[in-house]
Amino acid sequence: MPLTFYAVPMSTYCAKVRIILQLKSVDFVEQLPSGGSYRADAYRKLVAAGSVPAIQFGAFVLHDSDAISEYLEDCYPEPAMRAADLQQRAYHRSIARYHDTRLEPALRTLFSYVGGPPQGKADVSLSALQDCLTRLDKLVDPAPYLWADRLCLADCAYPTTLFMIEDIFSALGSNIELPAKVRAWQAALYGNIVIRQVVDDNRVAVAAWLESKERSR
Ligand SMILES: N[C@@H](CCC(=O)N[C@@H](CS)C(=O)NCC(=O)O)C(=O)O
Fold this sequence. Notes:
By secondary structure, the protein is of the alpha+beta class. It starts with a strand and ends with a helix. The protein has helices at residues 12-23, 41-46, 65-75, 86-111, 122-139, 159-171, 180-190, 193-215, and strands at residues 3-6, 28-31, 54-57, 60-63. The structure holds glutathione (GSH). Glutathione is lined by residues 11, 13, 38, 50-53, 64-66, 100.
């Protein structure tokens, strides 16, 4: 029986799980949330947290991209995406948490400025995001991935977010140069064929959203 993966195309959290599912060759079907939105009652009946991504396997339902990633690693240990060394594993988790608690929330604050008056108050959010990236550059030392030549769970959080940052900066009429280590990491991640496809599909969804915001300006 395939696992059901509830996701939406633009979500970077969903992209993280989509990458892991594919790298691990898990038998899964992807579906939009029941009722068409993660806010729909039908979806909240199934996934009480009311967020995507979520997975369902029989009666088992799980939300939260990091909880899902860890569960997938436990159930499908090949290829290994979690270091055996406990300190290295803990460090990778901290990088995954940095994505979910710092970088993505900083990016999300920019969403409300898209399609709004040029620049405006977005400047403060743009520099807060830039600061997050500067800290990330000091936190990581990819060679070319976080776990040398093996992709780990934490790597999978970043590729769509890094491209989304560039695309949203550009939609806001601003430029961003990713810090050097982060830029090299992004290029290495994009070199993986699974990641590349997920990134490309995600960017199509982001572009459609940006266009719709532009049209309704
Ligand atoms: N920490 C959660 C965040 C997921 C998240 O924020 N998803 C958004 C879509 S990108 C969502 O479902 N928002 C609705 C909500 O959380 O109420 C995760 O890692 O899964």
